[in-house]
Write a structure and sequence with these properties.
It is a single chain. The chain is an alpha/beta fold and 321 residues long. The chain has 15 helices and six strands. It is globular and about 65 Å long.
């Protein structure tokens, strides 16, 4: 049987602030000193507000993601990243990483940070063009909702209901009661079959109770039409990354990776995931072929090259035996 440690880590993705969906946006603009970029135009554009700290490795890991989002959506969104570290330290960090950061950065007090994030970072909320908070959560989940928000099709009632159920799931995870955790996760999946964090909980439950077939059952039941490319890629990674090989599901992972690629054929991360799924299925030559495409598109990304080198070394070992 497994442990609950992987489930406890899900809390950083579920915790929510005192800001509620449907509220008017907080007055952060008047409480911020802008360090990079310009203040957003509240009430006239879709604003994504991220809260982070320099000491948080997960926060720094979001820099590439948020920069990609701002570049991809251009003037359709305005990403604002708020930080409460000493401003001299923040400015030094921004100066050292300015070429990697493609969005607005502001400095706020610790009181403002605590009020908006309840001490949990990274955390973000999305403000629509009317100046209302329409969604909040971990920045890794932005793609789940952004397209519908920009299209004016976001279901605020659904977001509120889901937020309430996520809070229930959070409390159950804190209780360490595996049965109630699984029940709460299942309840979320009943209304949102592709809810990433609940799926992570189900994987943890399957490992804890030694039922790997549950992972196949759950992921086979998710309607592909519910997914965008980003989420499909997330699912593929989840199904390829378990350290216990018996809980991996590469057959489904390659389907999700293929779907992600159809949405964005030149996305390096999607190509990388697809190549990895092929590798896990034993098709090293095809994995190399696809990984070369990622390297060609993004030659500056050393991770893609290292992965390609690994596949090549495996092929050489196999050819020599």
């Amino acid at each position: 049987m497994g442990t609950l440690s992987s489930l406890i880590s899900v809390l950083c993705l579920l915790s929510v602030s005192t800001i509620n969906i449907g509220d008017k946006a907080p007055a952060f603009i008047n409480e911020t000193e802008w360090v990079r970029g310009e203040a957003p135009n509240l009430g006239n554009e879709v604003i994504i507000v991220e809260l982070w700290t320099i000491s948080c490795s997960a926060c720094k890991g979001e820099i590439k993601h948020l920069t990609h989002l701002q570049k991809s959506y251009s003037d359709r969104i305005h990403i604002v990243s708020l930080n409460s570290d000493p401003i001299s330290i923040l400015k030094k960090f921004i100066d050292a990483n300015n070429d990697k950061i493609g969005y607005t950065v502001g400095h706020v007090s610790e009181e403002v940070m605590l009020k908006y994030s309840v001490g949990v970072v990274p955390h973000c909320f999305i403000i629509d063009k009317e100046g209302d908070v329409i969604w909040q959560g971990h920045p890794a989940r932005i793609e789940e909702v952004l397209d519908s928000i920009l299209a004016g099709e976001a279901d605020i009632a659904f977001f509120k209901k889901l937020e309430t159920m996520e809070k229930v799931l959070e409390e159950k995870i804190k209780s360490n009661d595996m049965t109630s955790i699984a029940k709460a996760a299942r309840a979320v999946l009943d209304i949102d079959p592709s809810h990433v964090q609940s799926l992570q909980v189900v994987i943890g439950y399957a490992k804890h109770n030694d039922v790997p077939e549950l992972i196949r059952e759950i992921f086979d039941s998710i309607p592909m039409t519910d997914l965008n490319g980003y989420k499909a890629n997330q699912f593929a990674i989840m199904l390829l990354s378990e350290t216990d090989l018996g809980y991996r599901y590469p057959e489904a992972a390659v389907k999700y990776a293929t779907y992600a690629l159809k949405q964005s054929p030149e996305n390096g991360d999607y190509i990388n995931t697809y190549a990895r799924s092929l590798y896990c299925l034993g098709d090293v030559e095809k994995a190399i072929e696809w990984q070369k495409k990622a390297v060609k598109l993004f030659p500056e990304d050393s991770y893609y090259q290292r992965t390609l080198n690994y596949y090549l070394s495996i092929k050489q070992l196999r050819d020599n035996n």
